[in-house]
Design a protein that fits this description.
Length: about 325
């Protein structure tokens, strides 16, 4: 089935994709076929889960931001976490990575509980997340940003970097940083202030910095947000590269083209809960997903819908007409 024929959310090709730039990053997919027998339903069992979340909830006042009954993330795959605005993706991401504490629930990484484990300790256990270049980090050079990636996961504990034990390791860490900058084609930016980089270069540094601890599970928060098409292919290639070298990737993303391009499996959240799971093609055709996006007035790419599909979706959308077009 072609993209044009596929009903539901339009998963097209990423801008600039399919050309020579894409070919540069033709990586092997070690989990090809692994999802063939996985049921495309919320909470489905995976053959070899690296991360398992059970009964994870988070409330803010009267609002239930996250209510995830069961989720398994397959080892070695690229899993996308998608959903309309306010679905709870970021909150769930924060709960999984130790940046926020759930009200209830348990998370297991590689067979061991990580409940209440701080982010920098999770990094030692092989789980890292990207974090955005803060103002403070923007005033540091790119190589110093890389070095900080080796010692912590929040970028807040600058003073730790001055401890003597860290100093002794500095050369080794700097070497690792330089190797990663080379891999991400950022060597020419090594001694520049991080704040001078373009949006796409920042994303590359965020990804490269996350690799300083040689993680087995990499959590990427909107890796393509604000990236121009020229660098999008490069970033997509690097994400596939993480998978090719055996790492597991989970990423939150709004761009459906990106999701279709690189995901092995897609998890969809709406109103805090997981409402669907499946391959990108399963998800593109899933009526529950389409309803969730339409119900929230998310600005997804729905231009490809036929009049019948629009009429069907509108009749399922119970939002009062007066709220149409609200953000
Ligand atoms: N610190 C907080 N205090 C109060 N409410 C919050 C807080 N963080 C998130 N929320 C609420 O929880 C719900 C889920 O928010 P969250 O940011 O996790 O969604 P999201 O799926 O990441 O959305 P987006 O795609 O817009 O980033 C929203 O209704 C949001 O307003």
């Amino acid at each position: 089935m072609t993209d044009e024929q596929r009903p539901g959310i339009e998963f097209g090709k990423t801008a600039g994709g399919g050309g020579a730039a894409g070919a540069i990053h033709d990586h092997v997919n070690p989990v090809a076929g692994v999802f063939d027998d996985v049921e495309p339903v919320p909470g489905s069992k995976k053959p070899d889960p690296i991360l398992i979340a059970d009964h994870v909830t988070k409330t803010f006042g009267g609002l239930t931001a996250v209510d995830v009954e069961h989720l398994e993330i397959q080892r070695g795959g690229i899993t996308a976490l998608i959903g309309p605005n306010g679905a709870g993706k970021t909150t769930f991401f924060n709960l999984l990575t130790g940046f926020d504490k759930p009200n209830t629930g348990h998370v297991v990484l590689d067979g061991q509980s990580i409940d209440g484990v701080a982010p920098h300790k999770l990094a030692n256990r092989g789980m890292v997340r990207t974090f955005q270049l803060t103002k403070a980090l923007s005033r540091m050079t790119v190589i110093d940003n890389m070095k900080l990636g080796a010692v912590n996961q929040t970028g807040e504990h600058f003073w730790r970097a001055l401890l003597p034990i860290w100093k002794r390791q500095e050369q080794e860490i700097e070497g690792r940083g330089d190797a990663l900058l080379d891999r991400f084609n950022l060597t020419h930016m090594r001694d520049e202030f991080a704040g001078t980089m373009s949006g796409g270069q920042r994303k590359l540094v965020e990804m490269a910095r996350a690799l300083m601890t040689d993680p087995k599970l990499v959590m990427l928060d909107e890796p393509m947000a604000g990236v121009n098409p020229a660098l999008t292919q490069s970033l997509l290639g690097h994400v596939k590269g993480l998978r090719a070298e055996g790492r597991t990737v989970i990423f939150v993303e709004h761009d459906m083209d990106v999701v279709h391009d690189i995901s092995d499996w897609v998890v969809v959240m709406a109103e805090g809960a997981i409402i669907a799971e499946g391959t990108p093609d399963d998800i593109a055709a899933n009526p529950d997903v389409i309803d969730a996006y339409l119900g929230s007035h998310h600005d997804s790419d729905f231009e490809s819908w036929s009049d019948d599909e629009i009429a069907q979706a509108e009749s399922a959308d119970d939002t009062p007409a007066g709220e149409e077009g609200s953000p």
